[in-house]
Amino acid sequence: MSYNYQESLNGEALSRYQCKLDLISCKECPYKLPAGVWQNNPCKWPDVQWGDVYSYLIDSPGVYTRESMKAFKSLEAHNFFISGWVQTVFHYLTEKGAPFILKADVKPSQRVNEDPHHPWVAVNSSGTVVAAHCDCMAGLSEVCSHVAALLFKIEAAGRLGYTRKACTEEPCKWNADFVKKVLPDPISKIKFYKASTVLKAKSRKRNRTRKFTPANDNQKQQLLDSLKGCTTKPIVLCTFNGYSTDFHWTTPTVNTPKIPAALKDWYHPDNIKLSIDELYDKCKGIADSMTISYEVTRYIYDCTTAQSSSMTWYDQRVGRITSSTVHNVLHTTLENPSTSLLKKICDPAPKPLNVPAVIWGREHEKSAIKEFQQVMCTDHQNFCVKKAGFLIDLNYPYIGVSADGIATCDCHGSSVLEVKCPYKYRSSLLPEFLADPNTCLTTDHELKKTHQYYSQVQLQMYVHNMNTSFFVVWGEKFTVVSNVTKDDEFIKTMLEKSHNFFINAVVPELLTRKISSPTEKPISNDELFCICQTPEDGNMIGCDNQNCKYKWFHLDCIKMKRVPKFTWYCSYCKKQ
Question: What domains can you pick out in the chain, each with its CATH number?
Fold first, then answer.
């Protein structure tokens, strides 16, 4: 029972409930009365007659009217009673001369396994209903169907004489006769109609017998063919041979693009035995035959929006000229290419840098983007920034870029976003930053064309096929935004040099790994990762705890569908 029901009320509802208790001289809420004070003895009940029930239901606020009470047998409350949903009725006498309080549990008709409702009624010795209440949603009003069902059972007890009989077991047995447990039955045993309805249907006389001639095979075939020709095919056709095939469910095949093998897999020990001419021909043939589809590039892009937290991001960058290495490509020679540059491009091992400058930039990039958005929202409509993944160029598949984001607005379209948080100027003012001759910006806030960041954003604009870029420099005391436009002549020269460098320097290193130290063991494709201790599969995520035992996890092993966009820690590190 709802022991704390009165405490759960507030305001007007509590005031009305207290008035009911005062009216029946009940000092304690009926829901708080101990079980020992309630009695199961219909012989002591007041003689409640139909007129008493009728008067209370009509005069009290509720759904009951004179018209509805004329057909009371169709009411939901009466169905509660005759269906056995009203359980044993108990009574309690507060004090001599005070009204009787009668209560019973009433089960919900459509949710029989849920907790019952708890109505109570107060009746004086003459049978007049003084007050009633229920803890259901409609119980705050004077009358609900559960209160009415309880009154119907009390009235039936008086009408059947159980309130006037001597104290025998018969009234108590009648009071305890209700549905105690509802068991499931097969549909064939469930009665969906009242007995009177069934008898009426059986006794109905049929005036005439319909005669018909059974259809022959040709007529049946014509009917089926005409049904098949309908715009919406009738479901009955699925039961006939020759017509059921139209209803077979076919699951549409979704061609999910596959991530291509990493360029590091080009390595083979026999390649080092090739002559210079043979190696060059092989390198040129590989470079010229490289292709990639638009669907694959977008799939890789979507899989790598977490960037350094994605193993695919590392794998697909290996062997490709990226926006962070293209400036050095432009300033090295083919005759003597930079060894450190080739290692940076071709080294398959992800080695996150934990130097202060890198940590500072990684930790404050989100703050810089947030301040950038706040500045731009004042002058642009629906301005927003989306994370960007690793995008491979369709025309030159050995080139890829990872921008910090893509900025979009209704007034100017889309632009590339590149954010820098220089550790050296973290606490400087903007004039101090611009005064340094080695900084990337001029005093007019323009990106210097000789700076490596200029090459970076130009390559990003080319691969993303965008004409503008927002270059943001952020410090604790300043935020400056430089608008960079696409430089077609610069990009043309950059692509030519990148193509030559890829054929003459990058591909030979990918095939032979000559620059790798003889004492340095190349990382094998069979290196084991994750809790399952199996090789990588391209869809992996890295734990952001630098001391993690496993470092990298297969998405399937940890039951993840995609790489999260923010910081992620494995379950093992979370427990520490």
Answer: 5-175 (no CATH), 258-523 (3.90.320.10)
